[in-house]
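FW: tagging you since you asked about this chain on Friday. Here's the raw sequence from the shared folder, copied in full. Didn't touch anything.
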Amino acid sequence: MTAMTSPSAQTPPVAAPSLHTPVIGWFEQHARDLPWRRPEAGAWGVMVSEFMLQQTPVNRVLPVYEQWLARWPRPADLAAEAPGEAVRAWGRLGYPRRALRLHGAAQAITERHGGDVPSEHAQLLALPGIGEYTAAAVASFAYGQRHAVLDTNVRRVFARAATGVQYPPNATTAAERKLARALLPEEDERAAKWAAATMELGALVCTARNEDCDRCPIAARCSWRLAGKPAHQGPPRKGQTYAGTDRQVRGRLLAVLRDAVAPVPQAALDAVWEEPVQRARALDGLVADGLVEPLADGRYRLPMS
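HL: got it, structure written out here
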């Protein structure tokens, strides 16, 4: 496969069609049996999974996903509950604002679309809390449509196989989107399978570290491998820290509220973190994000509206 000259090159890889058959064939043999990939998951199951899987590994998502769908099998079921119940059920998945956004999307689906997740990309994109990636993923995985679905795993596969660099840029670029569209198969069904297959390839084989080229179905065509795997030349890639951060404090405060059956006093929140300035900052942030509701008597609860 002819390597592109740079990540911003405008010419799509000339051998792009030769990638489709090996990658899709690999996926059909090696794809994980995940509940959101089963036909019975439906569009709502796909949407829930996409919200939960953002920045969260599959093994942590699986039990929460199963419990969520058992409790709220349709958007209207979730929309009928207080948003705080979504935050409570989110548990320790992290980034709990996703729970509020999913609750808001469920309300909009119920009000605007009769409780059915819309199939049109534009209608998906118009839902609150739905960005370009999630709209494309739901349209592709739930409805078999032809869209470029660019998550971190897909971007890394394309950066290596087509562009010849180890990692994609920190933020998705216009050049990446153009490349992804150029690599899409023409047929809707095959394009949807390609989207899922490239995502799985990045998750299982073409990983961020310790990539397993011996298992890769397109290793012989990979521009990065053929170039000798040149080291990353972009900005340093920073690992995420958690211990001692405001995120950890927020998590501890939310854990108290999730476990409580009634509003909790300030003293119960003070007990989970010793440093008062950071604790107050984290609590103020939770209130500002709509994840915690302060009451007039000085107690706190998960949001009711």
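FW: The beta strands are 293-294, 300-301.
HL: agreed, and Residues 1-14 have pLDDT under 50 and may be disordered.
FW: great, closing this out.
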